[in-house]
UniProtKB/TrEMBL annotation:
InterPro entries: NAD(P)-bd_dom_sf (IPR036291), SDR_fam (IPR002347). This is Short-chain dehydrogenase/reductase SDR. Coiled coil: none annotated. It comes from the Bacteria. Pfam families: adh_short_C2. The keyword Oxidoreductase applies. The lineage of its organism: Bacteria, Bacillati, Actinomycetota, Actinomycetes, Streptosporangiales.
């Protein structure tokens, strides 16, 4: 129960990693505030959290909108009276095309969600986090570790998010607030399962073969699942990581070494 009695705000809650973050935080003893644009997804996850015996507050939120984020912070503090952790999980994938031809407006839109949205929400919760000597975790990506063609705009946004986390760690450290990053690679959830099925149909092979070929490139020979990524986040939020700030923890099964 590493998060017993704590309150954690999680953005970008959906059926994959966002759900896993909410459930693992709840299992660790936290009450959670769930934020995303789609209310029905929030309600479903909130029901699962309640089944674990913890409180969940679903708050429909657009993190690109200042007023919406202010409402999230306000409602969270009104309901629980404190915030101990913030997980910036909301993201938008920019166009996967070469930087020499990419639509710059679409790149800006990606930055608005992936970087400025995280900064916006963090700034609003700094006073509450300072009171509890809380923790912020940014969900990043293994795109940090490679420069594959067409991933340039995505890497730009995630590299900026890493720089944001490191700079906030320096700014907020004197106030007792820790800021860290978790960078997953593959996440074995619905989106990736759909993609592997698509590749299997295209090649005329089984989805299991696609999985096995991909897993063979990882040291652990297994694609990480949402709860395994979330457990690393729970660690970063918990007192076990009380001397850890400004760091990026790769959770990728050994796909990349850093």
């Amino acid at each position: 129960m590493l998060l017993q009695g704590r309150v954690v705000v999680i953005s970008g809650v959906g059926p994959g990693l966002g759900r896993g973050l909410a459930l693992q935080c709840a299992k660790a003893g936290a009450d959670v505030v769930l934020a995303a644009r789609t209310e029905k997804r929030l309600v479903r996850v909130a029901e699962e959290v309640a089944a674990l015996g913890r409180r969940a507050l679903p708050v429909p939120t657009d993190i690109t909108d200042e007023d919406s984020c202010r409402n999230l912070a306000k409602v969270a503090l009104e309901r629980y009276g404190r915030v101990d952790g913030l997980v910036n999980n909301a993201f938008a994938i920019p166009p996967l095309t070469d930087l020499t031809t990419v639509d710059l407006a679409a790149v800006r839109a990606g930055f608005e969600t992936n970087v400025l949205g995280a900064l916006r929400l963090t700034r609003l919760l700094v006073p509450a986090l300072s009171e509890t000597r809380g923790s912020v975790v940014m969900i990043n990506s293994a795109v940090l570790r490679h420069s594959r063609r067409t991933f340039g705009a995505y890497k730009m946004a995630k590299a900026s998010l890493l720089a944001l986390a490191q700079s906030l760690a320096t700014e907020l450290g004197p106030r007792g607030v820790r800021v860290n990053t978790v960078a997953p690679g593959y996440i074995w959830a619905d989106n990736l399962k759909w993609y592997f099925n698509h590749l299997a149909e295209k090649r005329g092979v089984s989805p299991q073969q696609i999985y096995d070929e991909t897993a063979a490139t990882l040291d652990l020979r297994k694609l990480p699942e949402p709860d395994e990524i979330a457990d690393a986040v729970v660690f970063m939020l918990s007192p076990l990581a009380r001397a850890v700030t400004g760091q990026c923890l790769d959770v990728n099964g050994g796909e990349w070494h850093h």
